[in-house]
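Q: What would this chain look like folded?
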Amino acid sequence: MSSQEIPEDKHLPSEQGDAHHGGVAVADDPFADPGLPVHKPRIQDIDDRAAKRSERTVAMLFTVSMLATIAFIAAYVIIPVDKIVYLFPLGKVSALNFALGMTLGIALFCIGAGAVHWARTLMSDVEVADDRHPIAAPADVKAKVMSDFAAGAEESAIGRRPLIRNTLLGALAMVPLSGLVLLRDLGPLPEEKLRKTVWAKGKLLINQNTGEPLRPEDVQVGSLTFVQPEGLEEGTHEFQTEIAKAAVMIVRIQPDDIKDKRELEWSHDGIVAYSKICTHVGCPISLYEQQTHHVLCPCHQSTFDLSDGARVIFGPAGHALPQLRIGVNGEGFLEALGDFEEPVGPAFWERG
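A: My prediction, written as structure tokens:
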């Protein structure tokens, strides 16, 4: 490069410094600590009215958080799950989801905003520098940490500002209620649903194949017929849920062959009705041995004796099949005389 190509504002090192280190000026310590800037007090540090305004602002944010949590719970209880509303520019949205999202978002945002505003306006903002130290803290360092913590708690003024402290504790205590309410949506409460079916006194026994009510003469000795309660229509919303508990099989046995006294009393002219749901894992029972009056579950080979109270004679099932008490109405049709007296299907831990 020629001397004509060197910019005029550039000079050789020897031209801009002294002879030290070849004419280049070098600082004694290029990484010297510049120190901390002079601390400038905030308006809240010098004006008590400004500090009070900030305190009220923080308390207001925490209070809004509490109100939003209450609104969350109210929305969850009041708004129907299938309600749809139009909101510009979102379009059609679920009213419940929108309300829950907004209220929970406001509750969490106000806690965060209140904490940030509290820290920036009322807590001490003096910068403190400290040297690094080994991980294993000696006793004097531990004492210093506890001292600093106590000083920080004092500087936060949480003890001197009960309005902020109480509203913060209230907001933090109420926000978890949202999670507790959401736990309710894990599924419907079973209540008595596992113990009861749609069978009731006077309900006709409807042949599942023909859809017609049955008369005693329609059931032959040695035959197996599957029935469902009157009024339970296939294709309805609750059909699958209810038929899973109410499915019944009826068998006609010679009355002299029935060994169990209660079974004989609950039958009609040798026609007995038992739950079709296996008491092992709930499989539908479908295999019947005419000579032995045994029914067999095809899933795990649990075997029940229908001539002896449907007791378990083989397999992993834990208890006998529940019996449905039946009779004949004034028109000559088979009808139920009530619901099962014990839960159908597999045992469950609440069962008493």
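DSSP finds nine helices and 13 strands in the chain.
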